Amino acid sequence: KFTNAIEAKQEAEQFALKAKRDLERIKIEAEQKITQAKAEAESLRLQKQQITVSLIELRKVEAFREAIAKWNGTVPNVLLGGGGAAPLLSLDSMMKK
User: What pTM does this model have?
Assistant: First the structure.
């Protein structure tokens, strides 16, 4: 019985030690997640500050210049605008009829 009591005490101490280590590990992991979330939030905040009306206009101009550079010189059959696709009528084809 004495040996069983000693073994039970040792097992209880080991269990308590393991529980303490697990708790410390969980706390550290939680702190890491919080730190990471704060860093991501700060990054998003800084990115949001950099988006201005001027930057948006610049991106539009850049996209337009890129489209011009890729243009092959033919008039498109469909025009995409803010309201969706709209067919373009070719006056040449109407005049030939």
Answer: 0.46
